Amino acid sequence: QVQLVESGGGLVQAGGSLRLSCERSASIFIIDPVGWYRRAPGKERELVASISHGGSIRYADSVKGRFTVSRDNAKKTVYLQMNSLKPEDTAVYYCFARELRPGLTSDSWGQGTQVTVSS
Predict the structure, then answer these.
(1) How far apart are CA 19 and CA 63, in angstroms?
(2) Each residue of 49-96: pLDDT tens digit?
(3) Would the pLDDT of 1 be above 90?
(4) Cα 46 from chain centroid?
(5) What gap in Å lies between CA 17 and CA 12, rounded to an integer?
(6) Is the peptide bond before 33 cis (omega within 30 degrees of 0)?
(7) Residue 71: which residues within 8 A CB-CB, separation 6 or more?
């Protein structure tokens, strides 16, 4: 598995912005996809955004038009730019990466970073 280190969470007022970063350790295998999940208090974990090795992107409907996911393969880093934040975006955000090994996949998770949006 790869190691993932997140940064960039914090407290922000509604309407504000935050940028999350997730740097991973090196791997000899293709990492596809990478992205972000979140878990709000009392709710199930949900996919926020993912980006494939080829650049295909998926977003949760609730964040479309507000969040932007990107990846820099040279820096082994995935980003989540979050704009127009709402109180319902409050959650712990987890970076994930899927490592494609011959015959199997291996999923890795970051430690999580808290995002709190005040009204």
Answers:
(1) 14
(2) 999 988 999 999 999 999 999 999 899 999 999 999 999 999 999 999
(3) no
(4) 11
(5) 7
(6) yes
(7) 34, 51, 77, 78, 79
| Cα–Cα distance measured from residue 34 to residue 31, given in angstroms and rounded to the nearest whole number | 7
Q: Are strands 113-118 and 10-13 parallel, antiparallel or unpaired?
A: parallel
Q: What is the length of the chain? A: 119
**19 close to 51: Cβ distance less than 8 angstroms:** no
Token output for 60? 């949760």
Tokens (6 digits) for 93:
């955000």
Q: Which helix (H) or strand (E) holds 70?
A: strand 67-72
- Residue identified by tokens 């490592």 is 99
Nearest CA among 101, 90, 69 for reference residue 16: 90
User: Which of 4, 34, 17, 8 lies closest to 92 in space, CA to CA?
Assistant: 8
